[in-house]
UniProtKB/TrEMBL annotation, chain A:
Homology family: Belongs to the binding-protein-dependent transport system permease family. HisMQ subfamily.
Residue span, ABC transmembrane type-1 domain: 163-357
One Pfam family from the record: BPD_transp_1
Transmembrane helix listed as a keyword: yes
Name of protein: Amino acid ABC transporter permease
Automatic annotation (TrEMBL), chain B:
Family as reported in the entry's similarity comment: Belongs to the bacterial solute-binding protein 3 family.
InterPro entries: Bact_solute-bind_prot3, SBP_3_CS, Solute-binding_3/MltF_N
Organism of origin: Kiloniella laminariae
Signal peptide (UniProt feature, chain positions): 1-22
Designated name of the protein: Amino acid ABC transporter substrate-binding protein
Keywords: Signal, Transport
Alphabetized Gene3D superfamilies for the sequence: Periplasmic binding protein-like II
Domain Solute-binding protein family 3/N-terminal: 33-262
PROSITE patterns per record: SBP_BACTERIAL_3
Length: 370, 335
């Protein structure tokens, strides 16, 4: 006990003493963080009790008490979730009412999509230039494969559904909204009065109404104004509505980034003798877009989830097809299971998007990060 | 809302003037399929099964028209429509007919410019109670707590009914049918009220369906049926008589199973129906075997009802029985 204190050391030579036991390691962490006072101890115990109760119930419902094998609802007797309905209708969750013998076309599109999106997301990819050409061609290939014609059986867009439709809507909206949003944002800050007024009117009008209104107008009013027999495809109408809606929001996000760029950057670009588009492309936008990555991804995620609204105009996206499954007389009262599954699919998509944006921010941080 | 109605009526009127050109039948034949507007999934009436095929009582009317026109009940494409957009899609010509449990009312028939071509389900607002209440008639419900969906006509019908009977009640408002099922199941209300078909499908989701009874009183009229655009009488006739053929076939005992034997029946009515005699098909602009194809491929009304509503949802025929059995189904004679 006394040996350490008795020993004499030259000033400054005293060795570091080990921390008192109970203040380090797991025990120390527990004492410091969870049981530092009577009040905290009670809170900790209560919280653990609560977690235990809830966690137990969730695990019972999702796993231990759930039914995974069987053919009919009668097999679900354990009191937990009845996942059979997901298995029974899994193909519909993926493809909607797409003809079953044509699933391979949708599968090819899914695979091609990965190759088309990868070069857009990762700039270190080998042979990225070639991939980018492929990315540009992908929408046409996907449209041909999905809708058919020229040797393939035609599939009505009304039969596209499930994950397929959600991805089509989400990706089209995302891909269209960024360039349109950039143009709108630049237009709103333009010195040309007509361009500026048009952009302001468009943005403010779209932001002033809910997406559901736009979809509803596109679905219900538009056909009445068109001559009889002229039918816009319903999906196309929804796509245009979603793209316009998200680009208005995107424009405002990007305008925020543009405003954050100091005036000196604009003047510097002008002093270099760059044209307007050159200065935007080379100086302003690369900085502005980087600042607003969180805002952009936020809009993307919001848009992706908003695509569920198309189920109110009779398109069977993920949510719409969930309602179909819920309406199945073979599986009654299984709405919680169905919606939980849909929520999981959405969570995977949205969480991946947000993780990607974090990665991108880290990669691009140059002096802005704190 | 008012403005919307005016706008809709104006748009409908414009569309009507252009829709006066005849020939939906020719258009449909040229397309090679019938485009039929149905409900977004509604159990028993229209919903896609796990094989991506649409099924239901309303769907069977579409299939019947398909069978009548093409001799092939599968030549139908379905457009799921929400209750708000259903009239627009029909008016705009996106669908050739609408079979979407739509109540036949004066304003829809006259003002919106549609033509209802029959009734394939007589619905009406009813009451469901637990057997343990010991109630056998809605007139004994004085002082009951009633679950009702807010913002619907059911709410108004309920108020009218109880007021006219001089009874008091307490409303337990619910937003959706699923929520209503839960609330009722937990015993937070004594009575659940909605359209009878809804009561039956709700009952099958409850924990003890056998303990629930639907009271005999029906307090509103909701005749549901298919409709087409005004102005094309021939197409309206085809839709009307396709449904009637299903009803008449049941009345005459012709089923999908025995329709071939019935071709050599002694009964002239059956022979006329199946096209072995007379020229009914020709008068409609269809094949002589039009009704034969309906019965063969879709079945008669009773078969369709049993397949879609009785077997899965335990909906009894009730007032939807044939007139001979005390129901309301009464198709004009085919002669």
């Amino acid at each position: 006990m006394s040996s350490l204190t008795d020993q004499k050391y030259a000033p400054g030579e005293h060795p570091d003493l080990p921390p008192p036991p109970g203040s380090i390691g797991v025990v120390g962490w527990l004492r410091h963080r969870l049981f530092s006072s009577v009040g905290n101890t009670i809170l900790t115990i209560l919280a653990f009790f609560f977690l235990y109760k809830v966690g137990n119930a969730v695990i019972f419902w999702v796993f231990t008490g759930a039914t995974f094998t069987g053919d009919t609802q009668d097999a679900c007797t354990q009191g937990g979730a009845c996942w059979l309905v997901i298995g029974d209708r899994f193909h519909q969750f993926m493809y909607g009412l797409y003809p079953q013998e044509e699933y391979w076309r949708a599968n090819i599109v899914f695979v091609l999509m990965v190759f088309a999106i990868a070069p857009l997301l990762f700039d270190k990819l080998p042979h990225r230039g070639m991939f980018l050409i492929f990315s540009a061609l992908f929408p046409f290939a996907a449209f041909y494969l999905l809708s058919g014609g020229w040797g393939l059986e035609t599939v009505d867009t009304a039969n596209w559904g499930g994950m397929l439709l959600t991805l089509v809507l989400g990706i089209t909206g995302i891909v269209a909204s960024l360039p349109i949003g950039i143009l709108l944002a630049l237009g709103r800050r333009s010195n040309m009065p007509i361009v500026r007024t048009l952009c302001v009117c468009f943005i403010e009008f779209i932001r002033g109404v809910p997406l559901i209104t736009i979809l509803f107008m596109a679905s219900n009013m538009l056909p009445l104004f068109l001559p009889e027999g002229v039918n816009f495809d319903k999906l196309l109408r929804a796509l245009i509505g979603v793209a316009l809606f998200s680009s208005a929001y995107m424009a405002e996000v990007i305008r925020g980034g543009l405003q954050a760029i100091p005036k000196g950057q604009y003047e510097g670009a002008d002093a270099m003798g760059l044209s307007y588009w050159q200065s935007m492309r080379l100086i302003i936008l690369p900085q502005a877009l980087r600042i607003v990555i969180p805002g952009i991804v936020n809009t993307f995620i919001g848009l992706y989830k908003d695509t569920t609204l198309v189920s109110i105009i009779g398109l069977f996206d993920l949510l719409g097809i969930a309602q179909v499954a819920v309406a199945d007389v073979k599986w009654r009262g299984l709405a919680p299971e169905t919606y939980a599954f849909i929520a999981l699919l959405f969570f995977i998509s949205c969480f991946s998007m947000s993780r990607y944006s974090l990665w991108l921010e880290n990669k691009l941080h140059t002096g802005h990060k704190r | 809302m008012k403005f919307g109605k005016v706008l809709f009526a104006a748009a409908a009127a414009t569309a009507m003037s252009t829709a006066a050109q005849a020939g939906t039948l020719d258009d449909v034949k040229a397309k090679g399929f019938l485009q039929c507007g149905v409900a977004t999934p509604l159990p028993g009436f229209a919903a896609p099964n796990a094989q991506n095929e649409w099924e239901g009582l309303d769907v069977d009317v579409c299939r019947a028209v398909g069978a009548a026109v093409f001799g092939d009940a599968s030549k139908v494409k379905y457009t799921p429509t929400t209750s708000k957009e259903r009239f627009t899609v029909l008016q705009a010509g996106e669908v050739d007919m609408l079979s979407r449990n739509t109540t036949w009312t004066f304003s829809r028939d006259v003002n919106l410019g549609f033509e209802f071509t029959g009734v394939n389900y007589y619905d009406g607002q009813g009451f469901m109670v637990n057997k343990s209440l010991g109630v056998s008639s809605a007139t004994e419900l004085d002082g009951a707590s009633v679950c009702v969906q807010t913002g619907t006509t059911t709410e108004l019908n309920l108020a009218d009914y109880f007021r006219s009977k001089g009874m008091s009640y307490e409303t337990v408002p619910v937003a959706t049918a699923e929520e209503g099922a839960k609330v009722y199941d937990e015993g937070r209300c004594d009575v659940y009220t909605t359209d009878a078909s809804g009561l039956y499908s709700l009952r099958s989701t409850l924990s003890a369906p056998a303990d629930q009874i639907v009271l005999p009183e029906i307090i509103s009229k909701e005749p549901l049926g298919p409709l087409v655009r005004h102005g094309d009488q021939q197409w309206g006739d085809i839709s009307r008589w396709s449904l009637n053929a299903m009803i008449i076939a049941e009345e005459l005992g012709v089923t999908s199973a025995n329709v071939d034997e019935m071709l050599s029946s002694e009964n002239p009515e059956i022979l006329r129906l199946l096209g072995a005699e007379g020229n009914m098909g020709e008068q409609l602009g269809l094949d002589a075997k039009w009704a034969y194809n309906i019965v063969k491929q879709v079945g008669n009304y009773g078969e369709s009802f049993k397949r879609n509503l009785t077997d899965s949802l335990n909906i009894e025929r009730g007032i939807n029985a044939q007139w001979k059995d005390g129901g309301l189904l009464y198709a004009p004679p085919m002669r």
